[in-house]
Amino acid sequence: MSLGTMHTTDATLSTYVAAVRDLIDADLDAVATARRVEQLNTELIPLDYCVPAELRTEHPGVPYTRNLVYADADHRFAVVVLVWGAFRETRIHDHLNWCVVRCLQGSCFETSFALVEERMSEGHAEVCATGGRTLARGGVMGLVPPPRENMHQLANAGWPTAITLHTYGDPGTRARVFDPVTRKVDIVALQFHNLLP
User: Fold this and answer.
1) Which of 153, 146, 62, 157 is nearest to 107 (CA)?
2) Which end of the chain has fewer CB atoms < 10 Å from its terminal CB, N or C?
3) Residue among 179, 195, 2, 182 nearest 93 (CA)
4) 13 in helix, strand or coil?
5) What angle do CA 101, 104, 108 make, to 5 degrees?
6) How far apart are CA 57 and CA 164, in angstroms?
């Protein structure tokens, strides 16, 4: 196994990444991994932690900025900082593997969704909202692969910039998105804006 690439020299994030890498080496199932990553998040990242400047940069013209912190060389996990301007949101999506989200600045709102009749056919699916919650600064939530609690939409529902830390159980480069109007389902490629020229 080779080490991946860190895109910051920040000591807090380096310690966190090393701990997640050790956890991934233990080869636990997705649910146990997500729950343990949640714990590592709260144990290793202080409530007053400030994201380094190189990861706080907002990319113009996108709903939210995805700045890569770490990419595992074996594609087992990735750590990404998301920077959200006022009233910015994701599309409705689910993760193809586990994901843990920690709010580092501001707050974000999660709306959870489910498939109607729990089925997709020919690239289409009907979804419905099932609940919502606010993730305040320091809050953490884990999501595990379908069919469990995985489909959601995240938003910065206020004026101050929000910053969240996402740890994905894969390279963090794809998501499955759901259009509630057309009912179309697509796998989309996700960019890391700090790696763009």
Assistant:
1) 157
2) C
3) 179
4) helix
5) 65
6) 13
Helices (H) and strands (E) in the chain, counts: 3, 12
Cβ-proximal residues to 48 (8 Å cutoff; 6+ apart), any chain? none
| Three-class secondary structure of residue 11 per DSSP | helix
Q: What digits encode the pLDDT tens for the residues 31-75? A: 999 999 999 999 999 999 999 999 999 999 899 999 999 999 999
Contacts of 171 (CB under 8 A, 6+ apart): 71, 72, 75, 78
CA count, 13 A, side-chain hemisphere, 165: 29
Give dist(CA 64, CA 71) in Å, integer: 19
Q: Are strands 78-84 and 162-168 parallel, antiparallel or unpaired?
A: antiparallel
Give the tens place of pLDDT for each residue, 124-164.
999 999 999 999 999 999 998 766 568 999 999 889 999 99
Give the three-state DSSP class for 135: strand
Structure pTM?
0.94
Distance, CA of 135 to CA of 164 (rounded, Å) = 10
Domains of the chain with CATH codes: 5-192 (2.60.120.10)
Count Cβ atoms below 10 Å from residue 123 Cβ, excluding itself.
10
Q: Which amino acid is at 83?
A: V
- Specify whether the CB–CB gap between 137 and 153 falls below 8 A: no
Task: Look up residue 111 and give its amino acid.
Answer: T
